[in-house]
Every structure is written in C-alpha cells, then in structure tokens.
Design a protein that fits this description.
Number of helices: 15
CATH class of the largest domain: Alpha Beta
Helix content: 25-40%
Number of domains: 3
Largest sheet: 6 strands, mixed
Length: about 450
C-alpha cells in the first residue's frame, strides 16, 4: 500500500499532484471511514485552488453518505474550534499551511478538534488504495450546508481564555503580518478587541501570496522587522498561511525564533502554576528545557509533528506544548497549534510581567542551531540510521524520532524525511561555530554510511 499522509495531511502542487481526482477520492475515503450520515465541516485557506479542491472533497464525502457543511475561508485553528464546539463528527481543511502558493493540501480533523491520529489516517489510506468506497443510494444523498461566523466565534473563544482587561490597559501598538492568508480574517479583529492599535501588513486574502511566501522565516519578514522600528511598535507578529503558526519580532526589531517564544510561554506557565509539564519534539532547542526547569517545570519529548505533541499532551494532561517552528498548543483552549491564541498569550505575559518581549527573550538561554541534509535513497534510510546509532552507542543516544546523539558540545539529531529521499541533520551547540562543526562531522558520517 502506498503512503498519502505526511506529517500534516496530504500535500502537493495544485492541479498536478493535488488535483480534483485526488481530492474526490480522499473525500470518498473519509466518508467511507466515517459512519454513514456523519457530519463533516470543511474550510479552506486563501489559495487559488481552494474552491476547486473543496468542491471535489465535498462531492466525495457526499457520495459516501456524509453530511457536508462548508465554512468558507477560515484559519485552521478556527475550523478546529468549530468542529469541537459545534458537534461535528470530523472536519477537513484545504490548506498547504506554510508551503509556497503553487501547493495545496488536505488535512483531516477529528471530532474533538485535534488532527487525525496516524491510526485513523492509515485506515483512510486503506480505503483509498483498496478503492473500497461506500456509495449510498440517491435517496440517501444530502445537500451541502453553510456555516457562517466560524472565525468570529473562534476570536470570542480566545478572548474568554486570556486577561482581556490587563491587555487593554497596556494599549499595545502591534504590527501584524498575516501573509495574505486566512489569518487576515481573525487576527486583526482579535487585536482590536484587545484594545490594540493595529498596523496590518499583507492582511488582504490573496492566494498568490504577493507580499511574501507564507512561511515566517527571517528572509520573508524583513519588511515586518523594519516596520516595527518605523512605527515604534511594542512588537511585530507574522502568521503563516493558515494561521496555526506565528513568529514574533520584539520592540527592538529582533526576529525571535519559535523555540524562544515556546520557552518564554512555557516558563511563564509553569512558574505561575508552581510546576507543570511541557511537551515538545526531540528537535526542539535545549533552551526550552533549561528555562522550564529553571521555573520549576519539566519537559517531555516526543516524535516530530504537532498531532504527536497534542496527543501526548492529552495523555499526560500537560500544561503546555508546541514545536520550535512557532506552532504552540494551549490545552485550556484546544489541542492544536494556534497562532492567534499564542499572540493573545504573549500580550498577556508582557502586560502582567511589565517586561518587553526583548527582556523576556533575554531570560532564555541562548543556543545555536545548524540544519543540513544528505541525499539518501528511501530503501537505505533504516540501515543508515541503525548504523549511525550503533556507532554512537557508547554515549547518550535518544531514538524517540530518528537518532539524537548528545555530545559535550551539544547534540545532533539525524532524521529521515518522510516525503523526500533525504536524511536531515540538526545540530545544536552554544555557538554557531560549534553547531556547524557538529553538523559537518555528522554529515560526513551519514554520507559515508549512504555510500557504504
């Protein structure tokens, strides 16, 4: 059987890999997997192929006996919130998240608002590859419903979970970049209700992403960095295309990487609770564990992937969790990555501590991360990783996801890509030079193992 689902749904170039036929069959597969008559809510981000794929997905679901409701353009966390609070059996988001505009994808949401676990994705894949679709009689087919106000209800849900009065009292000035994505329908209105003076960038929904590609990397947010200084803002924030991830720029114009924001919020949460547990993948910076421990909490590591982190949080009743890419999960609200909830929480922390973002970031220990990759045929990946682990067995090795080797200088994580014939290498140390040296040493080891 083939493999459809990656770390976050099914993705590909629109109208080539991710075409209406694929969307139709995914709808048929999900509809067949779910009980007949199941209620499914569909939303999209702003990509130009969104309606094409949503229509095909809906047709497949209807043919298998599902009852389909369309929510239009909505952020992924807003759709997840609606699925959970409106009693839907499942949801689907047509989005490629942070990928370039030519891509699109489909991600399935469980009835509790979390992303589909791997076990359910595998079951849907089996239906897909077996072509074992349920086809209901004409008399059992339903029409398509419409649900208005999904984004607005989501914003109200966030407001109920933060100290609105404390945030309003600060009268923040915020520069907000929503990357021409779905976040333009939620984040500006959230900030306005929080009493902020909002300067927006790339806030008009446009699936060609004219402002910049939707991944919030330093290269893509240079204009935001300049604008924070130009407007004398308290901070800047950029969201990706479906607004489940965000990255901050402090009041001094410094880009703050996602693991730093994760550490800041995690530390403040466990400090307020006088203890607690934070969940994050093995790829996250040691800075998170250092800062959480310093504030009385502990860290639990998982495999890479937001659904994995969320389900571990549910399992152990964790207080907070997230990934180093700016995807943060707040269990008091919902178990999914949520850029607007993260924005509101950062403002609450600044308001209550009376510390600017730069000061909060300065409290977190500094580490340098170096990323690289090696070409490796899929058939060799397992053997290469096993050999790498064996070569370092005398030291501290973690095989939660790939092979993570701890050294006196820092750590190296070697992970096979699930979608490409490559092996990724992450190296972290106290300095950029040390991290680069660790990465280069491991790259040579991996290359030799591939060649062998």
């Amino acid at each position: 059987m083939g493999k459809l689902f990656g770390t976050n749904g099914v993705r590909g170039v629109a109208n080539r890999d991710m075409n209406p036929e694929l969307a139709l069959k995914l709808g048929q597969s999900l509809g067949t997997f779910l009980p007949e008559g199941a209620r499914v809510l569909i939303a999209t981000d702003t990509r130009t192929s969104n309606e094409m794929l949503a229509s095909a997905l809906a047709a497949g679901l209807l043919s298998a006996g599902a009852r389909v409701t369309l929510a239009g353009v909505a952020t992924t966390p807003a759709l997840q919130y609606a699925v959970k609070t409106r009693g839907f059996d499942a949801g689907a988001v047509v989005t490629a998240s942070h990928n370039p505009p030519e891509f699109n994808g489909i991600k399935f949401i469980d009835g509790d608002g979390t992303e589909f676990p791997a076990t359910k994705e595998d079951a849907v894949e089996k239906v897909y590859f077996d072509n074992a679709f349920r086809q209901v009689a004409w008399s059992a087919l339903s029409g398509v419903g419409r649900l208005e106000g999904v984004n607005e209800a989501y914003v109200d849900g966030i407001l109920a979970k933060v100290d609105v009065a404390a945030i309003r009292a600060r009268k923040f000035k915020i520069v907000l970049d929503t990357s021409n994505g779905a976040g333009g329908l939620t984040a500006p209105y959230l900030l306005t209700k929080l009493g902020c003076h909002v300067v927006t960038m790339n806030a008009q929904p446009d699936g060609t992403f004219p402002g910049h590609d939707s991944e919030p990397t330093p290269d893509n947010v240079k204009d935001l960095v300049k604008s924070v200084a130009a407007f004398g803002a308290d901070l800047g924030v950029v969201q990706d295309g479906d607004a489940d991830r965000c990255v901050f720029v402090d009041e001094k114009g410094h880009y703050q990487y996602g693991d730093r924001t994760l550490a800041i919020i995690a530390g403040q949460i466990v400090r307020a609770k006088r203890g607690g547990t934070v969940v994050t993948p093995v790829s996250s910076s040691t800075a998170i564990e250092d800062y959480v421990k310093a504030n009385g909490g502990k860290v639990v590591y998982t495999r890479v992937g937001a659904p994995v982190v969320a389900r571990k949080m549910i399992e152990i009743k964790a207080d907070f969790g997230g990934e180093e890419n700016g995807g943060l999960i707040f269990p008091e609200f919902q178990y999914c990555r949520d850029a607007s909830m993260a924005l509101a929480k950062v403002l609450e922390i600044i308001a209550k501590t009376s510390k600017p973002l730069s000061a909060l970031a300065a409290e977190v220990p500094a580490y340098a991360l170096h990323k690289a990759k090696v070409t490796c045929p899929d058939a060799k990946k397992a053997a290469v990783l096993a050999a790498f682990a064996k070569a370092h067995a005398a030291g501290k090795v973690d095989t939660t996801d790939g092979v993570k080797v701890y050294t006196s200088e820092g750590w190296v994580l070697v992970r096979p890509s699930g979608t490409e014939p490559i092996v990724r290498v992450y190296a972290e140390a106290k300095t950029a030079e040390a991290a680069s040296a660790l990465a280069e040493k491991s790259l040579k080891e991996i290359q030799a193992l591939v060649n062998a």
